[in-house]
Hints:
Elements: H1 5-35, E1 40-47, H2 59-65, E2 69-75, E3 80-86, H3 100-117, E4 121-127, E5 131-138, H4 141-153, H5 163-173, E6 179-184, H6 192-201, E7 203-210, E8 222-226, E9 233-237, H7 241-265, E10 268-269, E11 272-273, H8 278-294
Helix pairs in contact: 1-3, 1-4, 1-8, 3-4, 5-6
Amino acid sequence: MTRDPKEILKKIRRLELRTRRLVNSSFAGQYHSVFKGRGMNFEEVREYIPGDEIRSIDWNVTARMNTPYVKKFTEERELTVVLLVDLSASGAYGSVDLSKRELAAEVAALLAFSAINNNDKVALLLFSDEVELFIPPKKGRQHTLRLIREMLYFEPKGRRTNIAGALDYMNKILSRRSVVFLISDFIAPDYKKQLTVAAQRHDLVAMPVYDPGEGSLPNVGVVTFEDAESGEQIEINSSSASVRKAFADAEAQRRQALDRTFGTLGIDVVPLSTDQDYLLALRAFFERRERRMAA
């Protein structure tokens, strides 16, 4: 499909202006306070000074020297932020103004500008049932604009979703601990093993993308549904109250199972929905992190 370059540039520019404004007005301080010092370099052991953090005491050295010593760390100057974005065909669905893919791109753009504003590097990994594109971590506005363009307009080869493959690829190419935002509807075959490894190696944040149409079936008679990823079709009689309830229950159970998986692995979750303000979900995430860090 041929796209008008001027329209592409206009859309990218609008998204840049919106997300940069949000970063400057709302998220600069929150992002920095939550992610600063996520990477720490050991510098030295020195004698304890009143006022030092008790938790930093090195008990082995203290026992050996018979006087308190503390470990001194310096904050790493920059982080690497990785955006893992699902481009499978189910992302094209949207029962409101935004599709799931458009919502994912806007949230990812906000995170990218937040990172760049904090002098962090940002990488992008787009995937479907294969790794479609990897852009290594860099800084700067032009780099971020390229990421936005790819998230909005990249044409994937695959239609299905392979989260396990994307996480395997990421785990192999990232040598240092990074902050990873995994943005997907998580409609995919089993990926718990790879998710577990990624959560151990990196600061992994899951961002499941939902649409209200996926959880409710309108009463419109017999309708034909087609799976966007497999192409399979099925007829459903939406006039039946029991059918509508079964439809809603199945989606609710899927989301609950997803939440249990994230909870078991200790992964932070930022749920996103095409009919809700994602700023509220992001603020809640930052506030949870701040409280946990202060505890």
